[in-house]
Amino acid sequence: MMSWRVRFGMIGFSFLICMLMIDVRRIMSAEEIVHNYLKSYCIECHGAAEQKGGFDLKSLKLDLSSDENFARWVKVYDRIENGAMPPKDIERPPKEETKQFSKSLNKMLIAAEQAASTMLPGTGLRRLTRSEYENTIRDLFDMPGIALAGMLPADGSAHGFDKNSDALDISHVNVLKYFEAADHVLDYAIATRPTAPSVQKRRISLVNRGGFVAHVVMNGDGVLLKEKISDPMFPPSGEQGHIDQGAHERMGSFKTGSSVGLFRHEDESFSPYFSEHVTIYPGRYRVRTSLWSFQWDRGKVLPSRGTEAARLSVVQLTGDGRGGQHPSYVLGYFDAPSIKSQEHEIITWMNRNEMIGFNTGSLAPVTNYNRKGRAMAFTGPGIACDWLDVEGPLNEIWPPAAHTTLFGNLPLIEFKAVEQPGVRAPVRTRYRQLGAGQNRSDLEQGLWTVLSEQPLIDADHLLASFLPKVFRRPVNTAVRKQYVEKVEERIKTGDSFETAMRWAYRAALCSPDFLYHVESNKKGNLKQIDDYAFACRLSYFLWNSLPDQRLTELAQNGKVREPKVLRAEVERLFKDTKSERFIKEFLGQWLKLHKIAATDPDRKLYPEFNSYLQDSMVAETQAYFRELIDKNLNVSHLVQSDFAMLNEKLAVHYGIHGVSGSQIRRVDLPIDCPRGGFLTQASILKITANGTTTSPVPRGAFVMDRLLGRPPDPPPANITAVEPDVLGATTIREQLEKHRNDTSCAACHLNIDPPGFALEAFDVIGGHRNRYRSLGEGDSAERGSIDPFIGITFKMGPVVDPSGVFPGSGEFSDIQGFKRIIANDTNRLLTNLARQLITYSTGRKVAFGDRDAINSITSHTQAVSGGIRTLLHETVQSELFTKQ
Amino acid sequence: MPPRSFSRRTLLQGAGVTIALPLLESMQPNLARGSESASVPRRMVAIQTNMGILPDYFFPDKAGNDYKLSPYLERLASHRDHMTVFSGVSLPGVTGGHAAQRCFLTGTPHPERGGFRNWISLDQYAAEQVGNHTRYPSLVLAVSNENATLSYTRSGAPIPAENSPRKMFEKLFVQGDPTEVESNVEALRQGRSTLDFVNDQAKRLYLTLSRADRRRMDQYSTSVRELERRLHSAQEWEYKPKPKIDDKPPDDIDDIRRFVDKSRLMFDCIKLALETDSSRIISLFIDTTVIHNITHHGGRPEALAELRGHEEGQFNVLNEFLTSLMQTEEEGQTLLDRTMVLYGTCMGSANSHSNVNLPALLAGGGFKHGQHLAFSKEKNYPLSNLYLSMLQRLGIETEKFSTATGTMRGLEMT
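YS: structure for the whole thing
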């Protein structure tokens, strides 16, 4: 797509020329100053004779109309401004001249940017991202789990985030999917019965029919238990296999309330499901379960090694015939304490054909079906599930909020063709329940739909309420009339009221007023967005969704921008659980947490890696960021801290003692612990590695780009990739010697590599190491904290050297030393984070001319305490947040 | 089972069932490969047989153009110059033994993991872009009694396959029931009218926007108009009579053990569909789960012999299909020249459940064939690269699909 600068730069530049002609003397000297300075102090190394570092000043024209050129001049400005140029060993030009130079170039850059921006507002018109779309519908219709994002094509990315208009193209495929999504929403929202579906409560055993576990118990991968010992009615498999599922069913044994102890982790042939509830009515369900853990010793139930963690997930049955491995998402991890049952309860939304899945999260993969003597020959840990209850659908009111959002309080009546001649009955779809669910639908009696005695008046009222909500701003009468006219048209052709309104609602959900962030100007002010747009910016920032009633009212009353009110709103929005979406989306993109599953750790080198660890890693980083904001901790905590947010799995992984259980909580770190701060969190360490090996370069680049805001230049073309040596002969550090010895490499790599070298002390799954793991040569490896059931074949290879020099900041001998160095640079950390937050929340990249405003944000923040929550407040209060 | 009812929803799903577009001039996709491609209809038939193909009888020894035909490839001897055989290929990250059968056309890694969600399949991706040229953007077929399918939507939902050649025949050639046609048309009309309405809203918004933002709103309007055109043509298709052919509807074979015969019937139907230009994108899942046990031959000679018998039967039927395409003429070329036929399996060795070194071949479609493209057995080359080449052969301008790192090395278009 052609950059707007290229197109309008020509106009912008001639505009600049006009400005030049008006005040020739003053502005010409800015250019002259720049030219003279460069000629005196820079051309020698960067001119016709020599181009040090590949930078050729002579061929760089002072034409600021092209994006690329503009960016290069910004680099020149920055390098001189922060003293990186000239290099240390060259005599510095006189301070006063450098000051004049910077001032002049600054002026020119801002002028060029402004000239271009008179043609258009800074923030381009952008549509809702996938997740914004989904969250908006979820909140608008009070359907917290309806699945929509997956139906829409993926969004792109611009300046690191998907909220920028450059990342959000639209094609006919998008429009088609929006139609389908709207139909899906309306199918779910419109009530088709006069009373709520009956609440069914079902207690399901882990050995339920269709859930796989009954099958694997046959061969010893699980056992039946009663009163904390092996159930005498159903002996464990030993020399003989356990009775099969059919026998169980004939004996009615699934109903005797036995607990089920499971040894086996899910794998490609085994997916534990609670199949007896397959959701028919979408809605909220209460899921309760009772869990404990034990050590099994050839028939005896003994106390377990500690609290294990079971995983519950929501599984979506698809119709493609496979028994297992259906799409699912994790509901959570739940503690299973030793011997003593612990009950857990969670309320969750379930869509049609969804059910609950199970896994022995904290156990190592173990199978007994090949073991001679099966369960009676096995000694090892197990997780026991006494039962799982699914109760629902839970509807406190009927019809539910989703329906009343569309049809208000209009009564539901039974549609009888005879009573409504000439009216077509609304269409009802028959849905098929997949799988082995034993829950049944209520007997559907008759066709129920809303009654309207005055359809056009009702349509007008309903749309007057709905349209401003869904479009997130006032809708004028003329527009609403257009919708009402359509309803009238449809009714004239014989549609029922419901069907006619549905037409209008679907149109609203596909119209650009809904799909786009329409940010109108404040009255009489072309540079600022109006109060409704401001409220939206705030809610899409902290909730990734539309404003709620209170925020909308504040916009209506013109109060939303008042500093005190705004402050209070930021606090309120952040305290709401919906702010979890901000944490997930912002970190997902800023720190690339969305890419956590992009690589698979090599099974031989990292056999201890599992999904429980991966899920815990992500939870740690999200919880840590939340804690920084909650406690308004200083920005140095991005890099360094004396605490971490851990559960037992992570604590063991990090070598920290005394943490028990699956839930994340704040843990004080021992004095010499290298953990603390984002850089040494397993999630970041995994994302910056490739599953088999680490390399200082991507890690270093990550630190520079994501944390310090100094993204390195891309490598020159024709550089061949480094083939890491997993056989243990050379270390990556040795292989990167060239970066130090070759001056053209060194220019960039002297900055990129050092952070990476410090982080070499951590492997691809974030474990700390003094030696590299190897598949070839090496010494035998110690087990350490790796589960006893996991086979270790890797060896200990060469020693890790995590030392380095960070130019301009000093030497370090290990990761703690490195962190101390960066943590001190609070201004840089704060500036970068502010830029990221502005880019994310406004959907607009930070312009050169915005720097003063950014500095204002950071200096206000520093003046208070340099805390992250203060930064959030300052960001929202900043002129950049309200800028058009 | 009555014909699937075409509800308004189904119509607007566009996921391979009914929205279609005749080859109107104004809608020629803007193709980089010269105007030739714009008017030459190109097709794709993607076939997977899910229980593996014995590698010892499939892979030739030598690479290049003068390889010696292996026992299975002997069955396709007359098409040696129309096909390319691959070795040393697999779909990166696709593991999990049988679970991989869901990913043959999607390439999504790790189908065996909990929470796995599939990506859009090759045929559906193609149908989204170019499916609008025919009455049916794509046909999703299977020889199976277990709901197996090769095709997945963008959101990873499986698209149910048609298992009955008879029903497929009726869908292609028997005129629709008038009330159904009317209801389809009505739904399309409503869709179009909604698109008109939202476009009017866009025009209203447009007036309030800056110049650059107007361009972005234009993108929305263009997309809406493009979809409207497609619905319009789908509406026209509803009234167009289906092609008249002399063939009689086939009688379905119920016994799944006769999968070779069932496949033959399906291939006949596919050839008719291609010949009448009823669709140009077809997927076929041949489910041989019924012989699963002997695919775990463990080296037993009797199991191997029986398995070989079945698989040779499958290659015979494939040969008949390719021959029937070659014998059909279209504008001076053969139907085979214009139809890419992909045939392969998700397991390199069904015996060990290995998912690397997949047996696969590509026939026809307009490539320089006649060779055995051999890649490294230790470090496999991505089969998804072949999929990218196939998409580009269809005239779709894309550099990305699934896990492809580029187009297939060594495979050139004609």
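YS: worth flagging: The CA atoms of residues 385 and 404 of chain B lie 5 Å apart.
IM: good catch. Also Chain B has twelve helices and eleven strands.
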